[in-house]
Design a protein that fits this description.
Layout (H helix, E strand, L loop, with lengths): L5 H12 L7 H11 L3 H16 L1 H6 L12 H15 L2 H21 L5 H14 L4 H8 L2 H10 L7 E4 L8 E2 L2 E2 L2 E4 H13 L15 H22 L6 H9 L8 H23 L23
Antiparallel strand pairs: 1-4, 2-3
Helix pairs in contact: 1-3, 2-3, 5-6, 5-7, 6-7, 6-11, 7-11, 7-12, 8-10, 12-13
Length: 304
C-alpha cells in the first residue's frame, strides 16, 4: 500500500473476515464509501486484510522486495545523530555529543585496534539519552512543515484532525497508572505548538516551565550519569574488558517509552546495571575500578 496508515483498515479487514465484528463486511465498506476520504485506498487495504485471513501467502507475495539495508558507517551515524541534536536543541548539544563519541573512539582504538563496537553503542545511545522527547520536541515535530505536507498528501482538503496529548505538565486523569490522552484540535494547536517549539532554548534551564517534573529531572540526570559512566569505563578500558564494556554501556538501550513505561524501564535498567558493573569489576585483568555511582539515587527511581 505504500503507507503505514493502511494498517488500520487492513486489521479491520482481518477482524471482519474472522467474523468477530458486530457488523458485516457490506456495512463496513458502505461506511468507508460514505466517509468520502481515500475511498479506493481504504477499501483496498480492508480487502487485503480479508484476503490475508484466507490466503496469507498470496498477500505476502505481493510485498515489494526490500533492498538489503546497508549499514551506516560510524562517521555516518555520528553525522546523522549530530544533525538531529542540532534540530532538537542547538549546536552546543551536538558538540557535546561529538566530543564524547570522539573520546570513546580514541580509547577503543588504543586497546582494540580495528574494533568500533563500543563507539557505536555510545554513538547511538548517548544521542538518544540527550534527546529525550519532551514538550519542546513534541511541539517541534507536530508543527513541522514535513508533517503538514504529509497530512495534506494523505487526507482530502477540509479534513479535520486532532493531536492526542498526555504531557505531564497538562495533568489530567490517570487510568491504570498512565495519563489519559486528550484530543486537541490541530488547527487551534498549531500556533501554540510553534511558539513552544521556538522556546526550546529554555530546556533544562531555571526558566524551563516543563523541566520541574520528576520525569524531566530523571531524564536529564540519566544523560549526565551515562556520561559519567562512559568516562569511567574508558579511563580504565583494557583489551580484556572491551567486550564487557560494550555490554555495560549498551544496557541503556533498555530505557525506552514515555511516562510510567519509561519509569519502569529506568528501574529495570538500574537493577541490570548493578549486576553488569559487578561483573565488569570482577574481570581479573582490570587495573582500576569503575567509580560511577548508580544511574540515579533511590529517591529518584519513582518518577511517575
Amino acid at each position: 500500500m505504500g503507507d503505514s496508515i493502511a494498517a488500520n483498515l487492513f486489521m479491520l479487514g482481518v477482524a471482519a473476515q474472522q467474523g468477530i465484528l458486530p457488523v458485516g463486511v457490506e456495512a463496513i465498506e458502505r461506511a468507508v464509501d460514505l466517509n468520502g476520504t481515500a475511498i479506493g485506498f481504504n477499501l483496498k487495504a480492508f480487502r487485503f486484510g480479508r484476503l490475508f485471513v484466507e490466503n496469507p501467502d498470496r498477500v505476502a507475495a505481493l510485498l515489494p522486495i526490500a533492498p538489503t539495508p546497508v549499514e551506516q558507517t560510524l562517521d555516518e551515524v555520528v553525522a546523522h545523530r549530530s544533525a538531529h541534536l542540532v534540530d532538537y536543541q542547538d549546536r552546543a548539544l551536538a558538540d557535546r555529543y561529538r566530543g564524547m563519541v570522539a573520546l570513546v573512539r580514541k580509547a577503543e582504538a588504543a586497546v582494540a585496534p580495528g574494533e568500533e563496537g563500543l563507539t557505536r553503542v555510545v554513538a547511538r545511545l548517548y544521542a538518544r539519552l540527550l534527546s529525550y522527547k519532551d514538550e519542546y520536541e513534541v511541539a517541534r515535530l507536530l508543527s513541522s512543515p514535513e508533517l503538514k505536507a504529509d497530512l495534506e498528501r494523505t487526507f482530502a482538503d477540509g479534513g479535520r484532525y486532532e493531536f492526542n496529548l498526555a504531557s505531564p505538565s497538562l495533568g489530567g486523569q490517570i487510568v491504570n497508572g498512565r495519563p489519559v490522552k486528550r484530543a486537541f484540535n490541530a488547527r487551534w494547536m498549531h500556533p501554540v505548538l510553534r511558539v513552544v517549539a521556538r522556546c526550546k532554548g529554555l530546556r533544562g534551564s531555571p526558566f524551563d516551565p516543563f523541566g520541574r517534573t520528576a520525569e524531566r529531572r530523571a531524564e536529564r540526570a540519566l544523560a549526565c550519569e551515562y556520561e559519567a559512566l562512559v568516562r569511567s569505563v574508558i579511563s580504565t578500558l583494557t583489551p580484556e574488558t572491551h567486550t564487557a564494556a560494550v555490554t555495560l554501556l549498551g544496557l541503556a538501550d533498555m530505557v525506552r517509552g514515555y511516562g510510567p513505561v519509561k519509569d519502569a524501564a529506568m528501574q529495570a535498567y538500574t537493577a541490570a546495571l548493578d549486576k553488569a558493573q559487578a561483573a565488569y569489576l570482577s574481570i581479573p585483568q582490570r587495573a582500576a575500578a569503575v567509580t560511577t555511582s548508580r544511574p540515579w539515587p533511590a529517591s529518584r527511581q519513582n518518577t511517575s
